[in-house]
Every structure is written in structure tokens, then in C-alpha cells.
Write a structure and sequence with these properties.
This protein is 44% helix and 12% strand. With 227 residues, the protein is an alpha/beta fold. The protein folds into 2 domains: 7-142, Rossmann fold, CATH 3.40.50.2300; 159-221, Winged helix-like DNA-binding domain superfamily/Winged helix DNA-binding domain (Arc Repressor Mutant, subunit A, Orthogonal Bundle), CATH 1.10.10.10. α7 crosses α9 and α8 (174-181) packs across α9. The protein is globular. Keywords: DNA-binding, Phosphoprotein, Transcription, Transcription regulation. GO terms for molecular function: DNA binding. This is Response regulator transcription factor. The modification 4-aspartylphosphate is found at residue 59. Residues 150-215 form the HTH luxR-type domain.
Length: 227
């Protein structure tokens, strides 16, 4: 694979040894190349415009500029960067908050490196990653008592938009959705954009939450990657 075709990865973590080990592992996979490593959130925010990764692997707690600050900045930016939060402070109960703040995956540092590689690819292709235990937590967290964070109801979505939303929840790529619905990839992207505008969410993970909240899809039917 050509260097220009590889998925560009950034790492922000204040454990230098961990950063070096993770960088070496990522660079050993021909699908990826590390373009930026930082040991603080502040350093990443200074460097990200010079070396913009496709995917950022982000620690939550760092000495100079936390991962939460980075999430806040990126959620209000137009970089299109995907964020995998990888933390030793992982708690399943934090899942909803991480998604709300713009994370595209939330993982424990106890994850196997080989599984992390698959998660990176899933986030790149599908825009998000959920494990089965996280979906179980989301099922309990997304109750009708929670305040709605969207302006439109499911009745305001077109039939085609609902078709696209259901396939997004099955982790289909844009091309796969286009092939399934016999429409162009550009039309799929237009439907996705309209869905995000109507539901007032920031990413594909938000669309999945919306679909579960509005009973467009049962949480049990969300397609997960095999462990």
C-alpha cells in the first residue's frame, strides 16, 4: 500500500513509553501510519493543523491539557477527524457522555493491540465503533426521561432517510448503503448530512443513539464487530 493511501493516525497520551509502543505497533500494520504523537492535549492542539491525522487515539487524563479539552475543541471544528478515546479510566457508565462529547469510540487501555487495529479500521470505514457491552449500557442510559437533544421527530424524516439510517446502524459503509439502495454514494452522503441536520447530532454515533431513542431500530439489532 502506498504511503499516501494509509490511514493517518495521531496519538495523544502522557505516558511516553505507551506512546512509543503504540506507535511502533500501528506502524507495523500496512494500513496505517503515525503522523503525530504528543504527550499532552495542549501540544496536540498546537500541532494538529500541521500534521492532521484521520484518526486520533486520545487519553482522557494528561498533565497539560486533558483529553476532555481536546474533545471539546474538536467537536466544534470542521477537521472531520475521528477520535478513539483510549483510557485507563474507562468506565462503561461514561459511554453516553463520551459520545455526547464527540468521541467515535471509547475503549479501555486493557484492549488487545490486534483488537485496537480492528477498531481503528471500523471507525475509519463506518465512523464509529460499539462493543456489545457498550450497547447494553446505552440501552439502559437512553431512557425516555433523558432530555431530547434533537429538534425533529422521526416523523419529520423521509422514508429514504430512515432507510439510510437503518443501514448506518448496521455499520454499512457509504458504498455498501449505495449498492443496497441502488443510489449513488453522493446521494447517500447527502442523506447522511440531512439526517445529522434534522437530528442535531454531531456524528454517526449520534445518529445511532437517535435511532434507538426513537425506536427506529432495536438496540439488539445494531451490528457489532466480532471480538
Amino acid at each position: 500500500m502506498k504511503e499516501s493511501e494509509k490511514i493517518k493516525i495521531g496519538i495523544a497520551d502522557d505516558d511516553l513509553l505507551f506512546v512509543q509502543l503504540l506507535r511502533d505497533y500501528i506502524d507495523s500494520d500496512e494500513r496505517y501510519r503515525t503522523v503525530l504523537t504528543c504527550t499532552s492535549g495542549a501540544a496536540f492542539l498546537e500541532e494538529m493543523n500541521r500534521h492532521t491525522p484521520d484518526i486520533l487515539i486520545l487519553d482522557l487524563r494528561m498533565a497539560n491539557g486533558s483529553g476532555l479539552e481536546v474533545l471539546s475543541v474538536l467537536s466544534n471544528s470542521s477537521t472531520g477527524m475521528k477520535i478513539i478515546v483510549l483510557s485507563s479510566f474507562y468506565r462503561r457508565s461514561f459511554m453516553g457522555q463520551m459520545l455526547k462529547m464527540g468521541a467515535h469510540a471509547f475503549l479501555s487501555k486493557e484492549i488487545e493491540m490486534s483488537e485496537l487495529s480492528d477498531v481503528i479500521n471500523a471507525v475509519h470505514v463506518n465512523g464509529h465503533y460499539f462493543s456489545d457491552d457498550q450497547v447494553e449500557v446505552m440501552r439502559h442510559q437512553l431512557s425516555n426521561k433523558l432530555p431530547e437533544f434533537h429538534a425533529y421527530s422521526k416523523d419529520d424524516l423521509t422514508e429514504r432517510e430512515i432507510d439510510v439510517l437503518k443501514l448506518v446502524c448496521q455499520q454499512m459503509s457509504t458504498k455498501e448503503i449505495a449498492d443496497t439502495l441502488f443510489i449513488s454514494p453522493k446521494t447517500v452522503e447527502t442523506h447522511k448530512t440531512n439526517l445529522m441536520i434534522k437530528t442535531c447530532v454531531k456524528n454517526m454515533a449520534g445518529l445511532v443513539i437517535y435511532a434507538v431513542q426513537n425506536r427506529i431500530i432495536d438496540a439488539d439489532r445494531i451490528v457489532l464487530l466480532d471480538k
